[in-house]
Design goal:
Largest sheet: 2 strands, antiparallel
Strand content: under 5%
Helix content: 55-70%
Distance between the termini: 67 Å
Length: 710
């Protein structure tokens, strides 16, 4: 099929199809010198720099970029990116009002806690089905599944964003099938309590440490989502937005515990899901184009075929035989009356490309992160089974059946609300993509397959979807959706903060020598413990503030590596070995750490397939015209003569995500069978791996109640 991705004549092409761009772009520009704000436009080649400066003034060549201009204009004649207008102040006022409302509801629920840890941890095991559905859905439909999804589908392609809600929704359905009923029936306060009941204190502690690391990443990722919106609406530095978001959510979470989390989640879900659905379906139905149409081009632009030329009344080219070119007489009669674009989509863009999840070359001339996208679905689908926030809501449900139905319906809601956000990526590219007035390109970049000796690399704007909501979508709908994304971010952040505080105090500190935490002081410690974890996550979010979506995958990659196999064994293996469970967690987690540093990873998540589409951008290769201009052959770039030096992508990320849980399973199986055959082979004291009897029902009322050994 003839699409812009299937031709080497794409002008001013799009940024690498890499799921990790959000994390790596800043690092890449730091180490390669590819920056938009610098003293020169082509730092890799001073001769090219001098040539383009001479075109501006041969007698006195200026320094580039010239005053009042920009590199892409001075070198490639692409107009400088237009500035997106500031948002209306009403958007900010609306966000403030909703945030204050959520905080008031959250703080007000301190009354329901009544000084009891069980109420703080699991809301008295009293949540009815509607609340369970909405609070589970609000944890799943977070800012990663919404804003991160929209960002990634805009920067790359549909499935790069859609894999997030697909994986999250799948995890809730799997939880309904395998764990929800059983978890609720356990009568424990936290997920690590299950590890303690089945495997003993050593396994409980190591599982708690792994899951705390996981949820620090989850919390950080959602703080980034909320902070981006606050920073844009109130013209804040992103770091200020991160800390402001974190402190607001911390205050009401520490007051009301799961009561505050659950009942604010209900309001947040109602606001979030309805607002987001309304805005997204408006974009899908009413946007001027669902995806960028074929490019109209610019003077001397050569159309890729006759059919495209007919759309714009193309005329025969002067220098290229049997080809049609831009009709300057019709579309650009004068300098101040021109209809042009950057020529980025010779055949037009698409919302979804065929075979995107089955063919690595489905997106040619761009690479397809197919291995990582499948790994993302697997990691989110299975890693989330050990999610502290999901399981906390299952524990808090009124009954096992309520927990199971809640997970199932929440999973379907995640699909229904989250996946449509990926459809907005192509429409966002129409308004804020490489053919829009806001497009920015890296001047010192080339691509052989795109036919571009300079200005090959498009630089997506991380706020593009927010611009859509504040400048394209009707004001009421756009504001409603922004409130929904803020609500989604807050709902997951409060759940993550609560989970970190409760697990650290109850499952780690409580087992330390000296009885630092007693039943009557557990609630106080749980509240205090939320504070350091919240600020650690704020630090991570501030350091990785250009990441929406990526930290979500990291979070559950950590959980999947070590914690999931022993969780399955706890419910589906008869008399599972505590020794096997401990070493399974340790081996899987250690394997994940080792593979993180031993596998070759260039940061772009692209498997090293052959072909030019799997080459990274190079630095500027020529001062001649791109290959699709109507110029004499002597003036056109010939890649065989002036080589664009590009390195091949090589990133094995995803392999480590799949191998680590396999190692965890192998270790558990070997040790479990060995122990059942040959007897206990543990190197730990017996008390460390003796299953615990945890009595929580009367703990708040009976100060002497203890965690007893079986």
């Amino acid at each position: 099929m003839a699409t812009f991705r299937e031709t080497s004549a794409t002008f001013r092409g799009r940024m690498l199809h890499s799921y990790l761009f959000a994390l790596m772009a800043t690092l890449l520009t730091t180490f390669t010198g590819l920056k938009t704000a610098r003293a020169t436009c082509i730092p890799s080649n001073s001769d090219y720099e001098a040539f383009f400066a001479g075109l501006i003034d041969s007698a006195n060549p200026p320094s580039l970029p010239t005053a009042g201009s920009c590199c892409q204009m001075d070198v490639c004649a692409i107009p400088c990116p237009a500035t997106v207008p500031k948002p209306d102040s009403d958007f900010g006022i609306g966000v403030i009002c909703v945030v204050v409302l959520f905080c008031m509801i959250g703080i007000g629920t301190v009354y329901f806690v009544g000084g009891k840890a069980k109420n703080f941890f699991v809301a008295g095991r009293s949540l009815p089905l509607p609340v369970v559905i909405l609070t589970l859905a609000s944890q799943s439909i977070d800012s990663n599944a919404l804003l991160g999804n929209a960002d990634l589908s805009y920067k790359f392609a549909f499935f790069d964003g859609a894999v997030l809600p697909i994986g999250l929704g799948l995890s809730l359905i799997l939880n309904a099938l395998f764990f929800a009923k059983k978890m609720n029936a356990e009568g424990v306060l936290t997920l690590p309590d299950v590890y303690g009941k089945r495997y003993g204190v050593a396994t409980e502690i190591i599982a708690s440490l792994v899951l705390c690391c996981s949820f620090l990443c989850l919390l950080a990722g959602n703080l980034v989502g909320m902070a981006k919106i606050l920073a844009y609406l109130f013209d804040l530095d992103i770091t200020d937005g991160v800390f402001l978001s974190g402190i607001i959510i911390l205050v009401y979470t520490a007051c009301g515990g799961l009561f505050s989390v659950a009942y604010t989640d209900v309001i947040q879900s109602a606001v979030g899901m309805t607002g987001c659905l309304a805005a997204v379906y408006w974009i899908i139905k009413n946007a001027e184009f669902e995806a960028p149409p074929p490019s109209i081009g610019f003077p001397d632009y050569v159309y890729p075929d006759e059919a495209t030329a007919k759309l714009y009344d193309g005329i025969p080219c002067t220098n290229v035989p049997d080809a049609f070119c831009y009709n300057a007489a019709k579309w650009c009669p004068s300098d101040d009356n021109c209809k042009t674009d950057a020529g980025a989509y010779p055949f037009g863009d698409k919302v979804i490309y065929d075979r995107s999840m089955s063919d690595p070359r489905a997106l040619t001339p761009f690479p397809n992160a197919i291995l990582f996208n499948w790994a993302t679905i697997f990691v989110l689908g299975f890693g989330n089974l050990a999610a502290l926030d999901f399981q906390a809501r299952c524990l808090a449900a009124k009954s096992p059946t309520t927990a199971q139905i809640g997970c199932l319906v929440a999973g379907l809601l995640t699909f229904f609300v989250g996946i449509p956000f990926a459809y907005t990526g192509a429409a966002t590219r129409y308004y804020f993509g490489p053919d829009s007035p806001y497009a920015s390109f890296e001047t010192d970049s080339c691509s052989k397959i795109l036919g571009l000796p300079t200005c090959a690399m498009w630089q997506p704007d991380g706020n593009a979807f927010i611009y859509m909501l504040t400048h394209v979508v009707p004001k009421g709908l756009g504001g409603w959706c922004l409130l929904g994304i803020v609500a989604a971010s807050m709902s997951t952040c409060d759940g993550a903060i609560l989970a970190l505080g409760t697990v650290f105090s109850h499952n780690i500190v409580r087992h330390m020598p000296g009885e630092m935490i007693k039943p009557d002081t557990l609630l106080r410690w749980a509240r205090i413990s939320t504070i350091p974890f919240a600020f650690i996550a704020m630090g991570i979010a501030a350091a990785k503030s250009d990441t929406t979506g990526y930290l979500l995958v990291v979070a559950f990659d950590v959980a999947l590596a070590g914690a999931v196999i022993p969780l399955f064994a706890a419910f589906y293996v008869k008399d599972p070995s505590p020794n096997a469970a401990f070493w399974s967690i340790f081996a899987g987690s250690l394997c994940r750490v080792i593979l993180e540093f031993s596998l070759k990873k260039d940061g772009f998540l692209i498997y090293p397939y052959g072909g030019d589409e799997f080459l990274d951008y190079g630095t500027a290769a020529s001062d001649l015209y791109p290959t699709f201009f109507d110029k004499s052959s002597a003036d056109l770039w010939d890649p065989s003569v002036q080589e664009c030096k590009q390195s091949r992508f090589e990133d094995w990320t995803g392999v480590d995500s799949l191998v680590s849980p396999a190692v965890s399973l192998l270790v558990f199986t070997i040790l479990h069978v060995l122990e059942k055959t040959c007897g206990n082979v543990s190197c730990f004291p017996k008390s460390w791996l003796t299953p615990l009897e945890k009595n929580f029902e009367d703990e708040d009322d009976t100060p002497s109640a203890e965690i007893e050994m079986k």
